[in-house]
Amino acid sequence: MATKSRVVESSFRFGCGRYVQEAGAAAMLPEEIKRLHGTNAFIMGGKTAFSLALPVIEPALRGAGMPYTVHEYPGFCCVQTCEEQMETEAFANADVVVGIGGGNVCDAAKYMAVRGDRPVILIPTSSATCACFTPLSVTYTKDFRRAGSFHHDREVNGVLVDMDFMCRQPERLLASGVYDAAAKMIEIEQRVRDLSANEVDVGLYASYALSKHTYERMFALFPEAVKALRAGESNKALFDLVYLSVAATGVISGMARGSNQCAIAHKIYDLSRALFPQEIKASLHGEIVGIGLLAQLYYNGRESEVATFAADMRSHGLPTSLPQIGIAQSDANKRLLYDQLIASTAMAGTDAEEQERLQRALTIIW
User: Fold this and answer.
1) How far apart are CA 230 and CA 225, in angstroms?
2) Which of 103, 266, 240 has the alpha carbon at shortest distance from 184?
3) Which residues make Cβ contacts (< 8 Å) with residue 131, sequence separation at least 6?
4) Phi, psi (degrees; rounded to nearest 5) at 122
5) How many CB atoms lie within 10 A of CB 10?
6) What are the residues whose beta carbons fall under 8 Å from the beta carbon of 2, sequence distance 6 or more?
7) In whole angstroms, how far apart are CA 1 and each of 183, 194, 362?
8) Most buried in the list 6, 51, 223, 242, measured by CB within 10 Å?
9) What contacts 200, CB < 8 A, 6 or more positions away?
């Protein structure tokens, strides 16, 4: 029996107005700002991202005679933090927002750009998520709890994926992006199983088809991409893997309308952030989703694949259980997570037998 899905966003938003992926892409920032009729950029990011990207983009901006200001964005995407930065004089004077870094900075930049009615250009420094591509901001409280998602009414204006940055990202981030992207196919399986194409939302069915291709190609490319990454070089395998993790996965999300594709694995992520924010503060999105995928595989009837899937995760240094990321293994925590999952949209429409199956699936990740 397929789990009922709920459409949160009515429109199909396929990602971004312009996506560039090549070596040296970050130096194209002045051209992209001009394309959007921008004249003054509000550039936000974290320290690590700035150390990587500013030596490339600042000479390009100065050479173009384009004014800009640089602002460090701290931590998670938080509405309060975003609003505080939007009250600055620098933001008021800027007519384009540029976000540089990982998923949280990209989500914050999108939120601020939409709220401030400005275009946004994103320069990811890793492929750990598809956040730079999707018209969605996942937000958190000041104490790192999951606070909800904003489905924006416009797409990202431009994305510059610089392969000179991508080949220098830690393997942990590359792997995190692969398992977050892999979740799309495995989770959509829960939504569409036992249903014909005529019974499934057309966008969800199309996203399922693309997610299967993405899943197969990612794991075929993964070994060669990791070799290139460890050598600090880019090759076709790494280029293709980054594209699949970011652009293709972002399109999958857009076709599924931003929420339809999520099931048990992402709900485990959401609940872990909400229930155990301090314990898992240092864990990556894809790492937690990857743990959830082990339970998702079991729930989907693919028990025989769980051990190999977990072994592959461990080979890239990823955790495979909740205690490994700091969530204590206690009866109270187990019951809390199970009860919250049963009451969530991930299990809507399931019967007692399926709920019992979920309980067995969760034993794998404790």
Assistant:
1) 9
2) 266
3) 102, 103, 104, 106, 107, 124, 138
4) -120, 135
5) 7
6) 190, 191, 192, 193, 194, 195, 349
7) 19, 6, 19
8) 242
9) 191, 192, 208
pLDDT single digits (tens) 93-152? 999 999 999 999 999 999 999 999 999 999 999 999 999 999 989 999 888 888 888 889
- pLDDT band of 4, cuts 50, 70, 90: low
3-state secondary structure the chain: CCCCCCCCCCCCCCCECCEEEECCHHHHHHHHHHHCCCCCEEEEECHHHHHHHHHHHHHHHHHCCCCEEEEECCCCCCHHHHHHHHCCHHHHHCCEEEEEECHHHHHHHHHHHHHCCCCEEEEECCCCCCCCCCCEEEEECCCCCEEEEEECCCCECEEEEEHHHHCCCCHHHHHHHHHHHHHHHHHHHHHHCCCCHHHCCHHHHHHHHHHHHHHHHHHHHHHHHHHHHHCCCCCHHHHHHHHHHHHHHHHHHHHCCCCCCCCHHHHHHHHHHHHCCCCCCCCCHHHHHHHHHHHHHHHCCCHHHHHHHHHHHHHCCCCCCCHHHCCCCCHHHHHHHHHHHHCCHHHCCCCHHHHHHHHHHHHCCC
Per-residue pLDDT band at 1 (split at 50, 70, 90): very low
Distance of alpha carbon 297 from alpha carbon 103, whole angstroms:
25
7 pLDDT more than 80: no
Which candidate, 288, 287, 294, 325, places its Cα nearest to that of 308? Answer: 294
Interior angle at CA 289, CA 286 and CA 294, nearest 5: 125
Please state the φ and ψ torsions of residue 204, each to the nearest 5 degrees.
Answer: -65, -40
Residue 270 predicted with pLDDT over 70: yes
Q: Do the Cβ atoms of 157 and 36 come closer than 8 Å? A: yes
Band of pLDDT at residue 10, cut at 50, 70 and 90: confident
Whole-angstrom distance between the N-terminal and C-terminal Cα of the chain? Answer: 26
The encoded tokens of residue 132 equal 């730079």
What does the pLDDT look like over 311-362, one tens digit per residue? 999 999 999 999 999 999 999 999 999 999 999 888 888 889 999 999 999 9
Stretch 146-174: mean pLDDT: 93
Residues contacting residue 271 through CB under 8 Å, at least 6 positions apart: 337, 340, 341, 344
